[in-house]
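Handout, section B. The chain below has 136 residues.
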Amino acid sequence: MSDQGPPQKGGGRMGRALAALAMVVGLALAQACTSKAQAKRQARAAFEAGRLQELSTSAQRQQTLMIRGRVRQPVIPWQPGLTLSRAIALAQYTHNFPPRVISVRRAGVTHFVDMQRWARGTEDPEVLPGDLVELF
């Protein structure tokens, strides 16, 4: 016979373990759940952070232009009077042969360069800040 007396309902070591487990699970669930107001604040903060980053990037882009293709420096600073040929040289074009196609995207509109005239030097358009030059 045991001196402990009759077993108590929910008592003993097993009962305390279950109670501790229930408390741990309850705390974990409480931390994992986010209120709607808190979720809205987090979403708003993320939106504002993204907007500020885009404004910063946009300001940088306004004084630079990008050149996509085989170049070492895809982003180059813009300067007044900068021509397409000079921009490609500043970007350090790395291919052994001249590009077959050159396009300049400005304000969402893509313009293609007449490659024969560009090769002869009779067409060398001026590039502007924010332009995207693509070399194929």
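Note. The two ends are 92 Å apart (CA to CA). Compare this with the example in section A.
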